[in-house]
Amino acid sequence: MKLERKDILKALETITVAGEGKNMVESGAVTNVITFGDEVVVDLVLHTPAMHIKKRAEDDIKKTIHDLVSADAKVKVNIKVEAPEKAEIKGKQIPGIKNIIAVASGKGGVGKSTVTANLAVSLAKMGFSVGVLDADIYGPSMPIMFDVENEKPISVMVDGKSKMKPVESYEIKILSIGFFTAPSQAVIWRGPMASKALNQMIFDADWGELDFMLIDLPPGTGDIHLSIMQSLPVTGAVVVSTPQAVALADAKKGVSMFLSEAINVPVLGIIENMAYFTPEELPNNKYYIFGQEGAKNLAADLEVPFLGEVPIVQSIREAGDYGRPAAMQTGSVIESVFENITRKVVEETIKRNESLPASEAIKITTMAGCSAVKK
User: Fold this and answer.
1) What is the CA angle 105-363-158, rounded to 5?
2) Which listed site, 2, 40, 64, 318, has its alpha carbon 20 to 30 Å from 220?
3) Are 8 and 35 in contact, with CB atoms under 8 Å apart?
């Protein structure tokens, strides 16, 4: 059958782009429709450049044309994002740091810090310069995982100002509240005190030139998360979860926090930790102790990338306890697992930087919530 342009436009009037009140024809998002027999090409311009909105718009267009015009139509959608070439970055930048990745989890005990440490060493092995900010104020674990529990940052002069020099281990620069407290000492601080300590580790430190700064956030969606995103233009977030329902429910809240209109931090993807167990004597067997592909299915439901699975392996736990992250085990399965996941994190970061404007730090405007600042 021959497709008519007017029929295509009428069908597209039933679709609304996420974040806009008008349908995509009325709003001007559809800039052109061309038909050739049973083929149709739709040119679309979006002003909201989030990856999941682009994918949803393309899927909606194809489905609507197939449902309302012709099931046999061959549909091609060309999407162009008209975003500012260089958005004004609110908040204070750290000179020399190219990408700031927040590693988060909705729930404690899912291995977020272990994943952060292994992502860091995998990035370093790929040749990137990497720093880790241990923002898990109440349970700082990076000093143990990098075998620098007894180290202390020294003071150096930079441009006439005294700065903390991060502790280095395995070519990774690390700062943690754990360096400033005794191992047996509990950190009994209110939110503002913790936030001030974090700001000092961020801005009063000599981080130098970094390709990636990884921020190990505390579990949940609380005060520390807002303090970090108030202080820094975070490039993107990685969410860690285990496969069981109780962890996925909290991971979903974590993703929702970052994607909310008030926060608006791109989610680079979800990592499924403790995905399965393979006994050493049965290397081809996989036992899904906590459920199968829960985080992978959650990523599909939320339309965010799935970055990979990390199995339950005793050496991962042992390596963290001994202060030598498991991804450093040359030739091991774990090295390969984290290498593949890290490669995907890098790929998603590149995609994000090519398609989205620069990040903005947020500003809390009321006691009830937060709002992005538009100047």
Assistant:
1) 85
2) 318
3) yes
